[in-house]
């Protein structure tokens, strides 16, 4: 029984409790009251993005050896951060499954399934922790994606704050999402001889799924916020 699974379970419970209490911490504005669960869900996701994105940056700063060995190096803090993220994605998966119709959430459910499998391998095997931490850099952009959703739900589209967030969102999308996924795909290709076939297959399938999904989302953001 891996201690990492205890961190996953604790993270799941913590994010579940946070989700339940968020409506009192951040009351929804009148425009969001018809969809209270979504308001709570986005704020929970924002909390995870701040924690995991900031944690990933701190991990590479505090443990520079991670960037040299993405497979075997697994500092306890970095390993725990990946396990915490698995707990969050499980909680978000359950939250969407219980509160949203399948045809509205299948893309995110599919995305979460891929992430849970890939990160779960890193947690259980104590390998590829550095690679998972690179993937968590994507969450830096997710901070601004979630802020965008919050501003939309609060009916603050025609504000300077929304316009500023849109620009930062697009910039961080290119740097921390598209470029990061491209770098990860390149790393997998260059290191295919050093990665076991099963793990290589999971990673390749994951990248093959994530890349088009993120390009489509980028196009939607561009069309919605800049070419409307």
From TrEMBL:
> Where does it mainly reside?
membrane
- This protein's superkingdom? Eukaryota
Q: Record keywords: S-adenosyl-L-methionine included?
A: no
PROSITE patterns found in the cross-reference section: TLC (PS50922)
Tell me yes or no: is Chaperone among this UniProt entry's keywords: no
Q: Name one GO biological process term.
A: phospholipid homeostasis
Q: Which residues cross the membrane?
A: 131-147, 167-189, 201-222
Q: Which organism is it from?
A: Platysteira castanea
This chain's protein is named TLCD2 protein
Q: Which UniProt keywords apply?
A: Membrane, Transmembrane, Transmembrane helix
Location comes to: Membrane
How this chain sits in the membrane, per its record, is: Multi-pass membrane protein
Q: Could you give one GO CC term from the UniProt record?
A: plasma membrane
Which portions of this protein are annotated as coiled-coil regions?
none
TLC domain residues: 34-228
